[in-house]
Amino acid sequence: MRQVLDELEIGTCGQGFYEVTGELARWLYRQPIRRGLLTVFLKHTSASLVIQENVDADVQADMAEFFRRLVPEDAAGYRHAAEGPDDMPAHIRAALTQTQLALPVTDGRLALGTYQGVFLFEHRRSPKRRRLALHLLGE
Amino acid sequence: MRQVLDELEIGTCGQGFYEVTGELARWLYRQPIRRGLLTVFLKHTSASLVIQENVDADVQADMAEFFRRLVPEDAAGYRHAAEGPDDMPAHIRAALTQTQLALPVTDGRLALGTYQGVFLFEHRRSPKRRRLALHLLGE
Amino acid sequence: MRQVLDELEIGTCGQGFYEVTGELARWLYRQPIRRGLLTVFLKHTSASLVIQENVDADVQADMAEFFRRLVPEDAAGYRHAAEGPDDMPAHIRAALTQTQLALPVTDGRLALGTYQGVFLFEHRRSPKRRRLALHLLGE
Fold this sequence. Notes:
The structure is a homotrimer. The N and C termini of chain A lie close together (about 5 Å). By secondary structure, chain A is α+β, with helices and mostly antiparallel strands. Chain A is about 25% helix and about 40% strand. The longest helix of chain A has 14 residues, at about 55-70. Chains in contact: A-B, A-C, B-C.
């Protein structure tokens, strides 16, 4: 049993879903561990992680629209407004989704379901560099 | 320190909560690890995992009704509609809950709180076979 | 590779956010593991865990208000009402956030983002003793 800790950086350019399954798979391919568990941890509070269907892009569009309506940016009365009208909704949308995910690894690959992809869900409007901390455990 | 990877299959027959604490406990009982961490990963994007009170079934009924209202199936305007009116709401309800859970293990048992149970939360109307990937780590 | 399992108890006095980053850091400081993964598991179903910004307390106030509106306590028609009007909303708010979090550890410290804090999100009105199960893995 051994572990590897590392970080990946993902660039985003506005709100929406950015699939990172490929980045994670390529990183995993270079590691000496074939079976185990990969934990992905996002080091930010205004973006989040979601596992969702990666076949039909309409799923991500509908999902983004649901969160825009559930947590509106133009809601009067957020106390925390100094960082822009999209910042407090970003924190709430992040709390409603995930900051970390643990993914099974078999045969040196992510053992996801057939239609599952891992997405970075960006909640801020301006371009950002987002850091993912990775912890891989196994043998 | 060692690990075990495996899969369980759970049958569902329509929307609602299916407690899987017993299935997980029976699986755990057969493993050679007494202390550690069990990670449960659901390999689907239209069902999810929830840890909730397992004493009063009304909790699950109220919870299901809350999610039906928050993410309605008859909402006009989902782009992703080809797989049925319950499919896009299923993806959203899954994003609002969990795809994976890590559970502490002591004395060969799940170290849950007194009233905690692990539930598969099915969001589709038709019967499904749902696969859970399990990763057990410990000694 | 080794593991440590333990429990921490946190007292709460009413609804709101209680930062536990310091408690976790102090516990971690006393352990013989410098690099790895810390999993925090809350053994209750009417409180939850959230990673959020810990600089501006307004973020937590806005977040609490969002959840009060999304899952109101005075909603007519919860079946599960015997434990008080704040109990069923507590279960729903917990399902919408997290029961467990896995946090990377480097140099004997939580490798969180600059503005990230770990919060216990209490959903009940009366004072409570909340237990956190901890699983630390690493070397």
